[in-house]
Design goal:
mainly alpha, 2 strands, 4% strand
Length: 97
């Protein structure tokens, strides 16, 4: 099970004056799409770890804490939902973008 890392960096906006750069909405969309793919892969990995099966084993045989895996899955699903909302806001061809 791997942890999601490097997600603390702010998502650039089309008029990011703090960094003095301009990004196209399509670049933001591509970034979010790639992030969505990575988060989905992490969710699958957590699901495959089968924390419910590990909980049935004696604590000394755990490879990971099942409660930690469950918390990670909940967090990843929340992150995935947030990415999907942002992605919908930046969908190419959308007049709001």
């Amino acid at each position: 099970m791997t942890a999601v890392t490097g997600l603390a960096a702010p998502v650039p906006t089309p008029h990011d004056t703090e960094r003095g750069t301009m990004t196209a909405p399509s670049d933001d969309y591509e970034f979010l799409h790639e992030l969505e793919i990575e988060v989905e892969a992490e969710v699958v990995q957590v699901e495959l770890s089968r924390p419910e099966d590990a909980a049935e084993l004696p604590v000394t045989e755990w490879l990971f804490d099942p409660a930690d895996a469950e918390r990670e899955e909940i967090g990843l699903r929340g992150l995935l939902a947030a990415v999907e909302v942002l992605e919908d806001d930046l969908r190419p061809g959308d007049p709001a973008a």
